[in-house]
Amino acid sequence: MASAVLKVAVAGLSRCSRLTLLRAHSMTAPLHQGIPGSLWKLGRLNHIAIAVPDMEKATALYRDVLGATVSDKVPLPEHGVYTVFVELGNTKLELLHPLGEKSPIAGFLQKNKSGGMHHICIEVDDINAAIADLKAKNIRTLSAEPQIGAHGKPVMFLHPKDCDGVLVELEEA
């Protein structure tokens, strides 16, 4: 009965939501219920990225007003951004500001003048296995191969149209 209810509930969800629900279900249900085990594991929330039109003002808000520990501003020219990380204890915020004319954050800020949430980053234990599995499940990626991200680890972005409108970054733990 519970399996039939799950199948009906899953049928109305987007691809990314179905995968999340099925992965959560597979961790709690016995393997013999027909949900195959995975060669990779979804980990913890690494950070939430926020595009900001004024990096100094945003940094001051989190550091001086809210009392958070913040990193130095770091340029990442290969990604077209400046980053500042805000430590929150259980996760981080990544403040993003455009670097260069071809910055993806510049385009985001043209549409969202005040800034806003840009993406979430979730850790995976094996990024190549995760990418292969997700592509087999028709989840599109924004690049052909993983790139090295702000933490010096391989990352891959999943297409927001396949993930309920959310830009999802996977980072190898």
UniProtKB/TrEMBL annotation:
Keywords from the named record: Cobalt, Isomerase, Metal-binding
GO biological process: L-methylmalonyl-CoA metabolic process
Record bears the keyword Coiled coil: no
Catalytic activity: (R)-methylmalonyl-CoA = (S)-methylmalonyl-CoA
One of the record's GO cellular component terms: mitochondrion
Family annotation (Pfam families): Glyoxalase_4
PROSITE patterns the UniProt entry points to: VOC
Enzyme Commission (EC) number: 5.1.99.1
Superkingdom of origin: Eukaryota
GO MF terms, alphabetically ordered: metal ion binding; methylmalonyl-CoA epimerase activity
Signal peptide: none
Root EC class: isomerase
NCBIfam families assigned to the protein according to its UniProt record, in alphabetical order: metmalonyl_epim (TIGR03081)
Family assignment from sequence similarity: Belongs to the methylmalonyl-CoA epimerase family.
Protein name: Methylmalonyl-CoA epimerase, mitochondrial
